[in-house]
């Protein structure tokens, strides 16, 4: 990035935009809802099973003015999902302020590994063992989505559930490549522990982005 652009990115006035698209939310509480997705590049959490590893290196994605991002989003939907990468790598205050000025409902999908910035109507927290969430984001999470890759992840899920607020909705979601193996275990676990719900990546079954 040029120094001038990097300064604007650091302020949150530009963001390394990987992609933006209008689709159906496939996961969690809002599954089935039409939404405009803003995928921001940059993430150093490094989950080995991440299905968007191309998002990790922010330098591969062009710094884009947030005014342009908001203008694009406003053509499609009043429900916005900011995802990554890890969007909290960057200052989300300027982007969410401008989206709010348009009257939009703004959701974030985050690992919570960095300081919570921005104004959000819904926070989907998907914690990772490698770099745990900040204390602040645990208390503000609306839904907790734990990815189940192996049996040890059930213990991790319970540890994470103990840190969120009482009204946070709890989801267990199989890692896509392990879904056939882990889904029966998740179903059994949820039946024995009904505070949890099952989350599926329904957009992959529907073959949509």
TrEMBL record:
Residues 30-209 form the Radical SAM core domain. Gene3D superfamilies: Aldolase class I. Binds 1 S-adenosyl-L-methionine per subunit. Binds 1 [4Fe-4S] cluster. The cluster is coordinated with 3 cysteines and an exchangeable S-adenosyl-L-methionine. It comes from Marixanthomonas spongiae. One of its GO terms (molecular function) is carbon-nitrogen lyase activity. Pathway: Purine metabolism; 7-cyano-7-deazaguanine biosynthesis. Its cofactor is S-adenosyl-L-methionine; Mg(2+); [4Fe-4S] cluster. Substrate binds at residues 24-26, 39, 83, 209. Its EC number is 4.3.99.3. PROSITE patterns: RADICAL_SAM. This is 7-carboxy-7-deazaguanine synthase. HAMAP family: QueE. [4Fe-4S] cluster binds at residues 43, 47, 50. Catalyzes the complex heterocyclic radical-mediated conversion of 6-carboxy-5,6,7,8-tetrahydropterin (CPH4) to 7-carboxy-7-deazaguanine (CDG), a step common to the biosynthetic pathways of all 7-deazapurine-containing compounds. Keywords: 4Fe-4S, Iron, Iron-sulfur, Lyase, Magnesium, Metal-binding, Queuosine biosynthesis, S-adenosyl-L-methionine. The gene is queE. One of its GO terms (biological process) is tRNA queuosine(34) biosynthetic process.
